[in-house]
Design a protein that fits this description.
Layout: H1 18-23, E1 27-29, E2 42-45, H2 65-75, E3 83-85, H3 92-95, H4 101-109, H5 137-156, E4 162-165, H6 186-194, E5 201-205, H7 212-217, E6 224-231, E7 255-260, H8 266-284, E8 288-292, H9 310-321, E9 327-330, H10 337-351, E10 354-356, H11 390-405, H12 427-459
Parallel strand pairs: 2-3, 2-4, 4-9, 5-6, 5-8, 6-7, 8-9
Antiparallel strand pairs: 1-10
Helix pairs in contact: 2-10, 5-6, 8-9, 8-11, 9-10
């Protein structure tokens, strides 16, 4: 007898006809496992316009990877399992919640055509090969930041348990300047929004690079704990993220860094991740989690140096999900677009608690990008020697657990009143809504008046009521 999941397997002893293949679903619900009882309400936040921008021909950051991800999500019909939202752009006022006035003004006004007029300030704003000026740069920033702000709103108002924005996760951007391909820090903006109602936020980063922009933004507070797993040797970008960076002042011990060497494999990464994240969650007791899922930590990434496969990366996300806390999931790095999109589609299926067929759907647009295997799970491991010895990882784990012990439990937080603009409605939108409600109220009065006279006519005897 074949198992219930045999139709998901690609190595079958028989093949289906075309009609059967067309009717066969691409996913099935996960019914076994300790987390299967948790059925979160998932929302997917994606504005198609965000994939239309281009950093430059030779630049490794390719926003069209978001289009590939969306095509995979649609081809696997994962939209059936989620609420779909097209978020609006972040407003200037929303970007100023974190970024400085002069920096946002610079992003608004500079273009490839007028860049010569800004030659005196390009160095001030860290403009160069990593962070070039390109067409529509400000619109691109407002689009991906708007996705994370919208995702945070859905968590706040209870419309979602898990909110996904794969266009977000640009964790290097600073208050006054861009860094590492990141111009606006959507993660910080999302966390600031969540802090209006959530006393403690946990940020987890599994990008290849240290999440320095988010760590820096919350380095002095105990309301946000940042945990970053990344390559570190003192020289690899951004050059920060050693285990002794633990926070300052009130934020002391609320930054946790996991510096890794080249070539870490699936088993080592998963074991270390779980052994660190479980005590972090049980000690810090976050009320919401932001998970950054940078795909450059996969093996075979254009800028990468790890040996992680898609399932191992996804297992880390699944472990965080299993705690059942409100969760915002964002993208990040990733410079081999076909593998980035495979990963984020797989992790979307994890959020929606389904298992996907390994063979990519035949109806998938741009399917040729995924050859020659046309698989959701190509082998990406064992390309680089693993320089993370067992002794190194054991010593690192002990040091991290010691840092966690110094937290001495979850900090108590004094919460202020929730601001009235928590839904993120702009002044123009609010005026339009009020105007529409006033018109509807006037129509209701007219209709009520009509219904009154109709009823009076129906109840009156002949000649008792005259128009």
């Amino acid at each position: 007898m074949t198992s219930t999941s045999s139709w998901l397997d690609e190595d079958l002893t028989f093949s289906n006809d075309a009609k059967t293949n067309k009717k066969t679903p691409f996913y099935e619900p996960i019914v076994n496992g300790f987390e299967s009882g948790y059925k979160p309400h998932v929302s997917y936040h994606y504005n198609p316009a965000v994939s239309n921008y281009h950093y430059g021909v030779r630049h490794p950051m390719k926003p069209f990877r978001l289009m590939l991800t969306d095509h995979l999500v649609i081809a696997y019909k994962l939209y059936e399992k989620m609420d779909l939202y097209t978020p609006r752009r972040a407003t200037r006022e929303e970007l100023l919640d974190f970024h400085s006035e002069d920096y946002i003004k610079f992003l608004e006004t500079v273009t490839p055509d007028n860049v010569n007029k800004f030659s005196q300030v390009l160095k001030k704003f860290n403009i160069g090969d990593d962070c070039p000026i390109f067409d529509g740069m400000y619109d691109y920033c407002s689009l991906y930041a708007g996705g994370s702000i919208d995702a945070s709103r859905k968590l706040i108002n209870g419309m979602s348990d898990i909110a996904i924005n794969w266009s977000g996760g640009l964790h290097h951007a600073k208050k006054y300047e861009p860094s590492g391909f990141c111009y606006v820090n959507d993660i910080v903006l999302g966390i600031l929004n969540l802090l209006r109602v959530h006393p403690r936020i946990l940020y987890i980063d599994i990008d290849l690079h240290h999440g320095d922009g988010v760590q820096e933004a919350f380095y002095l507070t105990d309301r946000v704990m940042t945990v970053s797993f990344h390559k570190y040797n003192g020289e690899f970008f951004p050059g920060t993220g050693n285990y002794d960076e633990t926070g300052v002042g009130k934020g002391k011990h609320f930054a946790l860094n996991v510096p890794l060497q080249d070539g870490i494999d699936d088993e080592s990464y998963i074991n270390l991740f779980k052994s660190v994240i479980e005590p972090v969650i049980t000690t810090f007791k976050p009320t919401a989690i932001i998970q950054q899922c940078g795909a450059d930590s996969l093996g075979c990434d254009r800028l990468g140096c790890f040996n992680l496969n898609i399932k191992a990366h996804g297992e880390c996300v699944n472990f965080v999900r299993s705690f059942g806390l409100p969760m915002m999931v964002v993208g990040g790095g990733g410079y081999t677009p076909r593998n980035v999109s495979r990963l984020w589609c797989h992790e979307t299926s994890i959020m929606t608690n389904v298992k996907l067929k390994t063979k990519l759907p035949d109806e998938l647009p741009f399917r040729s990008f995924f050859g020659p295997d046309y698989s959701l799970h190509p082998n990406l491991g064992d390309r680089i020697d693993n320089k993370n010895t067992k002794k190194y990882l054991e010593n690192l784990k002990n040091q991290l657990l010691e840092n966690i012990r110094f937290m001495r439990g979850a900090p108590s937080v004094s919460m202020s009143e929730i601001p009235p603009d928590i839904q993120g409605i702009t002044t123009e939108e609010e005026d339009a809504i009020i105007s529409q409600l006033n018109r509807e109220s006037e129509l209701d009065d007219i209709e009520s008046d009509k219904r009154y006279w109709i009823n009076e006519k129906d109840n009156a005897r002949d000649l008792e009521l005259v128009d």
